[in-house]
Design a protein that fits this description.
3 strands; single chain
């Protein structure tokens, strides 16, 4: 049995049939970081956290390896919920919950337990170092293979993997771009919009004070333009 089929079987066991976050059925997505199954809406939310917090994969469309399968097997929605209850953080908002030290420790512990079960050759190929940076990361590289030598299954898996890399890249840098946008908007408001608004208000006051001596025209019903009398206050002071 392939790892893909094994993961599908796990998604149908116990609490795994209900989304970890919203408890709805049809859990066709998973977070490898915590070994939990998710619905498509909550999977999108997890993607927005960035790959350093939650690595999301499709149960049906992605290609699974032994490491990913073991994370889902050793984890589960039920185990993760029990952990959150013990820590007293299950009632926290979802985004805030995954920023706690307890959840980060759970992710590290799950990874270490999986690595103990993996053969040495698999450990060597799966170990990667994540570098923290304050600038936008470079776009993930994509390798191309001659189509003649690729089967339809391999091609679908390759396309799915590439799309996941692109999605992870966008999610990881979305918050950075949002913060930069807020900073630019604030500077624009402070240096251009606010001074311009103040200037126009002051000019409006000057204009109003200059012409407030003139009365508005009063037109009675039935009057024509020719017999409308316009009265003004004494304007000799303007001479």
């Amino acid at each position: 049995m392939s790892f893909e089929d094994k993961v599908k079987e796990l998604s149908l066991l116990g609490e795994n049939v209900h989304c970890m976050e919203c408890n709805t059925r049809n859990t066709q997505w998973a977070s490898l970081s915590y070994g939990i199954f998710l619905c498509i809406e909550c999977a999108s939310l997890h993607r927005s956290f960035g790959v350093r917090v939650s690595v999301v994969r499709s149960v049906n469309m992605d290609k699974w390896n032994e490491e990913g399968y073991l994370k889902m097997k050793m984890g589960s929605n039920e185990k993760f919920k029990d952990f959150l209850r013990i820590q007293g953080i299950i009632s926290l908002p979802t985004r805030e919950r995954y920023q706690t030290e307890a959840v980060r420790d759970y992710m590290i512990c799950l990874k270490e337990n999986v690595e103990k079960e993996l053969p040495e050759c698999v450990k060597a190929s799966s170990n990667t170092t994540v570098h923290t940076t304050h600038r936008i990361n470079t776009m993930p590289s994509v390798s191309y293979t001659r189509l003649e030598s690729v089967s339809s299954t391999d091609l679908r898996s390759s396309v799915s993997t590439t799309l996941n890399k692109i999605t992870d890249f966008v999610s990881e840098n979305a918050l950075y771009l949002k913060d930069k946008g807020v900073q630019v908007g604030y500077k624009l408001n402070e240096s251009v919009l606010r001074p311009s608004t103040t200037y126009l208000k002051e000019k409006g006051k000057v204009f109003y004070s200059k012409f407030n001596g003139k009365e508005s025209k009063k037109v009675e019903f039935g009057q024509t333009r020719e017999n409308v009398q316009v009265k003004y206050k004494d304007t000799s002071k303007w001479d």
